[in-house]
Design a protein that fits this description.
The protein contains eleven helices and 13 strands. It is α/β, with parallel strands linked by helices. It has a single domain, classed as Metal-dependent hydrolases (TIM Barrel), CATH 3.20.20.140. A five-stranded parallel sheet has the order 7-10-11-12-13. Strands 1-5-6 form a three-stranded parallel sheet. Strands 2-3-4 form a three-stranded antiparallel sheet. The longest helix has 20 residues. The radius of gyration is 19 Å and the shape is globular. The termini are close together. About 45% of the residues are buried.
């Protein structure tokens, strides 16, 4: 079967000069050292050390072959979103980034499936960018879980998601710009605590804010990092909906009624956690995701899926690739990747 990783990132080689399009709004660019390492930059500030598969498609393809991954869905690194910029500048920036992502994926169009970013701070620009990206060959869009104080139940963002549903554009949601960073300055707690909390906040905000009631059921929506803490706190949320009118004021159904309206990736790193996630979401709504090529990602793609007790062979196949084939429309071309002889070391 085809192994598809739906949660991987790219940071194309963007120069300091090009980053100035954003005029003070983060200005992300890539400093490459020439030895296989680099540094993600935000203006003049160093943001994070990185390695060549983040920007070099040939290094990435080699790593995929070694790991037994046939296809990656490639999305921009969240630092690149540009949501704080003037909408016109953000639209210009997204055009540049999306062109570079297409060029990156051109190294092997059957194995690298591009996702675009959009200027989500402006509804008209975001819709136009999503449609243009689809026409140019992107397989969907990658968005942050909020724009400033506006989360996914915001009227304009619901309108954008509705546009994506009508245009048949899949949407991958990634947490970013985490809450309360001043309380989590050490040990990467913003990533370990803040990211799961951001995703839980987004999903519950949609459910309790009535967003799923407004959105077409055809919307293909996926949340990264296993949906954050959503599955593990769903009982608490349902209990609150049943017993407090303040919780259910804007939603006619409890949060659990909406688990069939979105998907999640499998990046939970523990077979026991994945078992609960599948029990809550259903195997048909979980897709392999690793957060490649960052060190906090799953280092052996698919290992947690394969070690998850109680999954049938059919359920494993769905999570490892079958669900992604349907979600992203990765059909015949995805199946043309390297054959079983290369994947023999993948441990299936």
């Amino acid at each position: 079967m085809t192994i598809i990783d739906v949660h991987t990132h790219v940071f194309p080689r963007l120069s300091r000069t090009e980053s100035r399009i954003l005029a003070g709004a983060g200005e992300p660019w890539l400093r490459v050292h020439g030895d296989g390492t680099g540094m993600m930059m935000s203006g003049e500030d160093e943001y994070r050390p990185v390695v060549a598969p983040l920007w070099d498609p040939h290094r990435r393809l080699a790593d995929m072959a070694a790991a037994g991954v046939d296809v990656q869905v490639v999305s921009p690194t969240p630092l690149m979103f540009g949501y704080d910029a003037d909408p016109a500048r953000a639209a210009e920036w997204c055009d540049l980034v999306n062109d570079r992502i297409l060029a990156f994926c051109a190294a092997d169009r059957a194995r690298l499936l591009p996702l675009a970013q959009v200027p989500l701070q402006d509804l008209a620009s975001a819709c136009a960018a999503a449609s243009a990206a689809k026409a140019a060959g992107h397989r969907g869009v990658h968005i942050g879980n909020h724009v400033g104080e506006r989360y996914l139940a915001d009227e304009a963002i619901v309108a954008f998601l509705t546009h994506c549903a009508h245009e048949d554009i899949p949407v991958l949601v990634h947490p970013w710009d985490m809450l309360a960073p001043e309380r989590m300055p050490r040990h990467m707690l913003a990533w370990l605590v803040g990211m799961p909390a951001e995703t839980q906040l987004s999903i519950l905000g949609m459910a309790l804010g009535g967003a799923f009631e407004k959105l077409p059921t055809s919307l293909r929506l996926c949340f990264c990092h296993g949906g954050g803490s959503f599955a593990y706190l769903l009982g608490r949320a349902d209990n609150a909906w049943h017993h407090r009118d303040l919780v259910r004021a804007d939603s006619p159904k409890p949060p659990s009624a909406y688990v069939d309206r979105f998907s999640v990736d499998s990046a939970v790193f523990d077979p026991r956690a994945l078992r609960l996630l599948v029990d809550v979401m259903g195997a048909e709504r979980v897709m392999l995701g690793t957060d490649f090529p960052f060190p906090l990602g799953e280092q052996e793609p698919g290992r947690v899926v394969r070690e998850c007790a109680g999954l049938s062979a059919a359920e494993r196949d769905m999570i490892l690739g079958g669900n992604a084939l349907r979600f992203f429309g990765a059909g015949a071309e995805a199946g043309s990747g390297p054959g079983p002889e290369r994947r023999a070391g993948a441990g299936r």
